[in-house]
Design brief:
The chain is an alpha+beta fold. It contains eight helices and seven strands; from the N terminus they run ααββααββββααβαα. The strands form two sheets. The chain has a five-stranded mixed sheet, with helices on both faces. It has a two-stranded antiparallel sheet with strand order 1-2. β5 and β6 form a beta hairpin. The longest helix is centred in the C-terminal third of the chain and has 27 residues.
Length: 256
């Protein structure tokens, strides 16, 4: 229900065919026309081939972790947040940053860790926002269990980011602060996600030419909605591309 409501809330900003597919997937519809099983082109040069579609959780899940989707989805979501920040406070947010020994952001080289998909200063502290989308199969199985929390996927992704970069930020002390921002592949967020977006938005808004109007959508929520649009929309586009790879004769007219 949560994923469906998220998809419905953002679908109006998508092209109609993409919005239709995003809502279809959010309602747990099959990722392929009529539930057919297709070979994804991701694995065309290696065995075993990747499959998508059908009734198995493995085949349905592949769409969410397809390597032909992952990078595109990530950069579109990060770019959507940055465009909103730039409209609010031009020039204060940077991308693709690592941190120096003093906790200051600096452009990352190819070999550098990149905990700052986006960075902004907040007083004497540098905030490093690290956006991630997660829907690993093992985590999805865990969340489907009878005792699982519906926030397990985001919590696991959040913990993994802390393990990856925690030492860097402990060494920087108060000069730098790490803000992991995980979403699930279905567009779900977590209280940690929302809190970190609030803190990042607060830092952007403190340097804005004009604040959010009274009664307007809070900046952090605009960030979240914009990223969710890209997560759901890019996945829906990938599903449509896979169907098109097999030709229009494989698709039933009117089927998402």
């Amino acid at each position: 229900a949560g994923a469906a409501s998220s998809a419905a809330a953002v679908a109006s900003t998508m092209a109609p065919v993409v919005a239709s597919k995003a809502l279809h997937l959010a309602l747990l519809g099959a990722p392929t026309p009529r539930g057919m099983v297709f070979r994804c082109l991701e694995g065309r040069s290696a065995l075993p081939f990747c499959s998508i579609g059908g009734d198995t959780i493995e085949n349905r899940h592949h769409l969410e972790v397809c390597k032909l989707l992952f990078t595109r989805r990530h950069y579109r979501a990060v770019g959507a947040i940055k465009r909103i920040a730039d409209d609010m406070a031009p020039g204060v947010v940077n991308t693709e940053q690592t941190l120096d020994s003093y906790g200051n952001p600096m452009d990352a080289s190819r070999e550098d860790p990149r905990p700052g998909d986006l960075t902004v200063s907040h007083g004497q502290t540098q905030l490093f926002l690290d956006f991630t989308v997660s829907l690993q199969l093992a985590d999805l199985r865990s969340e489907l269990g009878p005792r699982a929390s519906k926030r397990d996927i985001c919590e696991k992704a959040y913990s993994d980011k802390i393990k990856d970069y925690g030492d860097m930020f402990r060494n920087a002390g108060d000069a730098a602060r790490f803000l992991p921002v995980p979403l699930t592949g279905y567009g779900g967020s977590h209280p940690f996600t929302n809190a970190n977006l609030r803190d990042f938005a607060k830092a952007v808004e403190a340097q804005a030419t004009a604040p959010t109007p009274m009664g307007g959508v809070p900046l952090w929520k605009r960030f979240l909605d914009a990223a969710t649009v890209q997560v759901l929309g890019t996945t829906a586009q990938r599903a449509l591309e896979i169907a098109d790879d097999y030709g229009p004769h494989e698709r039933q007219p009117g089927t998402p």
